[in-house]
UniProtKB/TrEMBL annotation:
Catalytic activity: guanosine(46) in tRNA + S-adenosyl-L-methionine = N(7)-methylguanosine(46) in tRNA + S-adenosyl-L-homocysteine
NCBIfam families with a match to the protein in the record: PRK00121.2-2
Top-rank taxon: Bacteria
EC number: 2.1.1.33
SUPFAM superfamilies from the UniProt entry: S-adenosyl-L-methionine-dependent methyltransferases
Name of the protein in question: tRNA (guanine-N(7)-)-methyltransferase
PANTHER family: 3-DEOXY-D-MANNO-OCTULOSONIC-ACID TRANSFERASE/TRNA GUANINE-N 7 - -METHYLTRANSFERASE, PENTACOTRIPEPTIDE-REPEAT REGION OF PRORP DOMAIN-CONTAINING PROTEIN
Record's GO cellular component terms: tRNA methyltransferase complex
Biochemical pathway: tRNA modification; N(7)-methylguanine-tRNA biosynthesis
Job of this protein: Catalyzes the formation of N(7)-methylguanine at position 46 (m7G46) in tRNA.
Amino acid sequence: MGKDKLKRFAENLTFECFIQPSFEEAFRCDHPMKGHWHDGFFHNDRPIVLELGCGKGEYTVALAERDPSRNFIGIDIKGARMWRGAKTVTERKIPNAGFLRTRIEMINSFFAEGEVDEIWITFPDPQLKTRRAKKRLTSPLFLSYYAKLLTPDGKINLKTDSQHLYAYTQAVINHFGLPCEVANDDIYGSGFADEVLSVKTAYEQMFLERGLPITYTRFALGGQRQFEWFDWEGDDIPEKDNEEARK
């Protein structure tokens, strides 16, 4: 492991906005912060928004600065990348932003029922291989995780360059009959991108330079709690995304 990574890991532990639990604190048990983000972390009762797979935290920071009426938490497992966002929040003294280092599969160990108002998923790994479909962050498996922590009318936002993941998410929405507010396959080309959607992560800037259109989906779970697995016929279609761009 490089010295820079070790330095960042160490500095993460000094940031008040950064929570890095041990595996034992979250595996098959509830973390002490579960159900206490309002009073124990943000010290207010404003709505909580999560960014899943936040990377460097660009969206978490940007959303927090644009909307002080809500609280934002960036979640990822890669601490060296998250360091950038946590350092920015610390240096700018942004009171309504924080970071949680954990695997998204363990998210229900950290948030109580109805504790989260909204979820952003920004440029996740689309998990293109069919055998990895369950790892897609809009798969039925993950929707069942989100259903346990979102408010009844909570929204899920997906922003991605992957036409495959975009189509897959639409298939999931249609299969379960979920309320879908927006499904746009080219937010810049169509002029749909507003101030918030125009925030660009490092990955997004790279994809735009490669000429890949950026898609956006906004949907809710419609009160559903159980999402059974189903096979999507679209996985039989050869993937045309630029997978190498993500490595």
